[in-house]
Amino acid sequence: MLKKAAALMLVCASMGAWVGCGTTTSKYVYAAIPASNEIVAFRMDPNSGALLQLVGSPVTAGQAVQSLVIHPSQKFLYAANSGATPSGTVSLFIISSGGGLTEVTPRQNVGTAPTLLVMDSSGSFLYVANSGSLDISVFSINSSTGALTLVPQTGGATAGIGMSALNMQLSPSGNTLWVTGQVGTQGFIQEFPVSSGVIGAPVGGSPFLTGNGPYGLALDSGGTHLYTANKIDNSISAFSVNSSGALTLISTTGETFTGPVALFIDKSGKYMYVANQQSSGNLAAYSIGSDGGLTLLSNSPFATGPQPSFITGDSTGKYLFVGNQSTPVVQSFSLDPSTGTLTSVNSYSVPGTPTSIAITH
């Protein structure tokens, strides 16, 4: 059945200099707030990157909603609810033309404490990393309704990975899945082949060693270089990806900042941004060489609020958004694609620490 979360109608009179209501360029930004079991919804001004919270927002989500992802059709939003018991759940929301969210119930059961969601570029499969049960649930997606159907794995309903996933990334083809983890004082990347949503045994050479605390993970648009942000080592590891998907470490960049936890590569593929969560409280910016090497920009870093924890950007490549922990806000920056420079647009208070941001195209 359909459960209406909120009407979320825009109030045109409050928009000032924004573009008019009904513009086809409207984009919507959604932030997961696990402490309050809510999703905050904003309209983004495509001309400035400023955000306007929608009327009726925040909307009710599942318990400890943790991760969000939007279907390529822009019709569906999925949310991983890490606090649901006895098993975690995934919610499906229908996105209206005005950015409103309508939840479709019942929620889909998954493993224990789902914390990460990734989707292939075609929107055919959704992957859910369950940090409590140390496995991954995979679902096929009905392109008309957004409904999820479990894809059985070779060992049972889910694919056991034997670790609590810190981050997860699919290749552009959707045929390779990388998952970062930590055992003791060693960080690593597990690499799995994927076929029609079925996760195979780790590839030869996997796991690949990386820095300590690989919370950040990013893949360039060509799928040729993979990077980890190593929180405990204060470093960035860069790997080349060969034709089989296997990884070769090409460089380790030591940061002068502390606690790198998230990575973001801009649409042009020329720049990488690193959220430094601890005493630094900033985004470091690097240019990316043709060999995948990193060079710190001369005007980097860019100040954020305390404890930036994740980064995402809009589809135009003009704006970047950051979620901060200790003073819960979503920050908006404009991005100069010619220089990589970030300019703060504004900060927007949210009712608790945001853990994920998803943006419509």
Which stretches are low in confidence, meaning pLDDT under 50 for 5 or more residues running? 1-24
Rg measurement, Å = 19 Å
Per DSSP, the total helix count is 0
- Broad CATH class of the domain at 1-9 and 27-165: Mainly Beta
Tell how many strands the DSSP assignment holds: 33
Q: Specify the biggest β-sheet.
A: 5 strands, antiparallel
Name of the CATH homologous superfamily of the domain at 1-9 and 27-165: YVTN repeat-like/Quinoprotein amine dehydrogenase
CATH architecture call of the domain at 1-9 and 27-165: 7 Propeller
Mean pLDDT comes to 91
Order of strands in the sheet with most strands: 1-9-8-7-6
Task: Find the structural class using helix and strand composition.
Answer: mainly beta
Give the helix proportion (percent range): under 10%
| Beta-strand content bin | over 45%
Explain how this protein is built:
The model is unreliable at 1-24 (pLDDT under 50). The protein has strands spanning 2-4, 27-33, 38-44, 51-53, 59-60, 65-70, 76-81, 89-95, 101-109, 114-119, 125-130, 135-141, 148-150, 159-160, 167-170, 176-183, 186-195, 198-199, 208-210, 214-219, 225-230, 235-241, 247-254, 260-265, 271-276, 282-288, 294-296, 302-303, 308-313, 319-324, 329-335, 342-349, 356-359. 0% of the residues lie in helices and 51% in strands. The strands form 7 sheets. The protein has a 5-stranded antiparallel beta sheet with strand order 1-9-8-7-6, with no helix packed on it. Strands 2, 3, 4, 5 and 33 form a 5-stranded antiparallel beta sheet that branches. Strands 10, 11, 12, 13 and 14 form a 5-stranded antiparallel beta sheet that branches. The chain contains no helices and 33 strands. With 361 residues, it is mainly β. Strand 17 and strand 18 (198-199) form a beta hairpin. It has a domain at 1-9 and 27-165: YVTN repeat-like/Quinoprotein amine dehydrogenase (Methylamine Dehydrogenase, Chain H). The radius of gyration is 19 Å and the shape is globular.
